[in-house]
Amino acid sequence: MSQVSNRVFAKSWMIGVYAFLYLPIITLIFFSFNDSRLVTVWSHASLRWYGALVNDSDLISAVLLSLEIAFLSALMSVFFGTFSAFALHRYTRFKGRTLLSSMASTPLVMPDVIVGLSLLLMLVSIQHWLGFPQRGLFTILLGHALLGTAYANVVVTSRLREMDIRLEEAAMDLGCKPFQVFKLVTFPLLIPALVSAFLLTFTLSFDDVVLSSFLSGPGYSTMPMVIFSRARLGLNPTINAVATVTIVVVSAAVIASSLYQSHQERKRKREMALAYSNKNS
Amino acid sequence: MNESSSYVRHFNWGKLGVISVPYFWFVMLALIPILIVLKISMSEMELTSVSNMVDWSNGWPTVKLNFSSYLFIGGDALYIKTYLSSIKYAFITTLLCLAIGYPFAYFMARSPKHLQPMLLMLIMLPFWTSFLLRIYAWKTLLVSNGVINNILISLHIIDTPLLMMNNSFSLIIGMVYSYLPFMILPLYANLSKLDMRYLEAAADLGTSPFKAFWLITVPLSKAGIIAGSMLVFIPAVGEYVIPELLGGPSTLMIGRVLWDEFFSNNDWPMASAVAVVMILLILVPMAILNKYQAEQAGSKS
Question: Which residues numbered 228-247 in A keep a CB inside 8 Å of some CB on B?
């Protein structure tokens, strides 16, 4: 094969994969502006289903519940994920480290149905002894926070790996107490990773249907649970409208945050370069 | 600073705190729940709860183990068929993800450096937007009066709609679609670090590019291939949402059986036993994944 035909093949393969990944998303968005009740037959453009969305009180309350759970569980995930990343990255030798690292990676790959079932059976056992917690917001929150912690652990760990330990050592040499080192050096360096971890765990929670179905109680339906029950019955144009709103908001947030992070990264590199050039001159 | 020497000098409360917080969290929410599933899988269903494993009625504790759920699974052809079919679909999904994802990751790692962050983000973006909605989107594409059939009929390519929905075709499309990024990301991470000088050396020694690919690139990316395959295979075995929305009555998946045992039949011991057998099935792939991840972390530091 010649060099040129190689490149053409590579390009068409990549375009094909991107088309496969984006075709469903584009279809969803396109048909959300369709006036017809039939999701798959185009009649003419309208905002009819967005109007229906505004009046869909079931869906709106589910969205609010999902946002609340996603926000709280993302906070918890980042908190516990940072702790476990520190424990696993900074302390390479302690009893039970292997157990901790496998417990932290299990929720990443374990099928959702098993995580949901096992958490529910544990919570039911606790409720049997103590009389609480009732199934509802709190129990969904615990499930999402467990899953999120495992993801936050990965994000923060990879940041800790790249981080220059000498910065902390320098602070220590200059007389900082361990907590001061964390507050003045480590934490500011970690902020980009904490922001990515928060966004990731927020969207994971906002997206989850299996854990929520196991862990929720009467009266607590998250947005994915409502969408899932409607999608099981058949095609429904309001789902397209919800999907479009979700996709636009999430994509905007992801793109904005990655632009912000690459901007910060460039700024930091510039400052480092400046610091070194000052030292040398 | 040597960690163990500071440990000898004074007991390190900070270390204890940093380790015990995540330890407590994961033991409570990951370890104990699995042990409870194991326990309940060996109990019997009573009216509103499951039987106690330890019986105190004689005045001393007697442990009652009940293997009836396991015996039922082992003796029922449908359960065994469902497990095998779950493994089959997960395996096909993994192979297809590898076949599509490996060339993709390879080309991405070879594309101009300044484009790579954007290409990577375009792979990640669908992963961020709702998984459930993307599966639903495939439903609108594949049903008999769906988008693809409508287009093909209006172009007079076909007369009768193709049956692409609620069968293994739609199930596998949905699974490959959802899990492809999990294959591409570890492969890309691995292939982008590949030292090009090996390939140059091989070319200098007269090896054809095709041969160099099989003899150098593929073996060096073994860790990425294994990590990606396990990241696809393990969750795919227990997948519930995709078979529920895109699969049909003939596409047996064990995740759906577990769900039905729990939500429709309210049979907790049975659901737990189905879960335990599923865990046993994915235990070996999980061990392989952990080993390779530990090796990769070790080689980095």
Answer: 228, 231-232, 235, 239-240, 242-243, 246-247
Yes or no: say if A135 and A123 are a contact pair by the CB < 8 Å rule: yes
pLDDT of residue B49: 60
Q: Output the domain CATH number for residue B182.
A: 1.10.3720.10
**Least confident among A69-78, A202-211, B143-152:** B143-152
Task: Name which of B11, B34, B301 to mutate to probe chain A: the one with the most chain A Cβ atoms within 10 A of its Cβ.
Answer: B34
Count CB neighbours of A264 within 10 A. Answer: 13
> Model's pTM, two decimal places?
0.86
Residue B70 lies in a domain: no
Q: Is residue B51 a part of any domain in this protein?
A: no
Contacts of A22 (CB under 8 A, 6+ apart): B126
What is the CA B293 to chain-centroid distance, rounded?
Answer: 15
Contacts of B7 (CB under 8 A, 6+ apart): B15
| pLDDT tens digits for range A195-230 | 989 998 999 999 999 999 999 988 899 999 999 998
Tokens 């009652």 belong to: B64
Binary contact (A203, B128; C-beta < 8 A):
yes
CB neighbour burial string for A231-252, b if at least 16 within 10 angstroms, e if fewer: beeebbbbbbbbbbebbeebee
Q: How many whole angstroms separate alpha carbon A100 and alpha carbon B150?
A: 53
B245 at interface of A, judged by CB pairs closer than 8 A: yes
| From A137-141, A192-196, B183-187, the region with the lowest mean pLDDT | A192-196
Give the position of tokens 């940093």. B18
The parent domain of residue B236 ranges over 76-266
Q: How far are the Cα atoms of A13, A119, A249, B44, B267 from residue B47, in angstroms, in the given order?
A: 58, 21, 47, 10, 11
Residue in A closest to B209 by C-alpha: A1
Which residue, A105, A102, A195, A203, is CA-closest to A154?
Answer: A105
Identify the residue with better confidence: A235 or A206.
A206
Q: Is the dihedral of CA A62, A135, A107, B44 positive or negative?
A: negative
d(CA B69, CA B86): 20
Distance between CA atoms of residues B236 and B87, nearest Å: 8
- Please give the full DSSP string across B105-118, using - where no structure is assigned: HHHHHHS-TTTHHH
Q: What percentage of chain A carries pLDDT values higher than 90?
A: 35
Residue B215 forms part of a structural domain: yes
- Residue A142, pLDDT score: 94
ipTM: 0.85
In chain B, the number of structural domains is 1
What domains does chain A contain, in order, with CATH numbers? Answer: 56-244 (1.10.3720.10)
CA distance A225 to A212: 7
| Residue B180 within a domain | yes
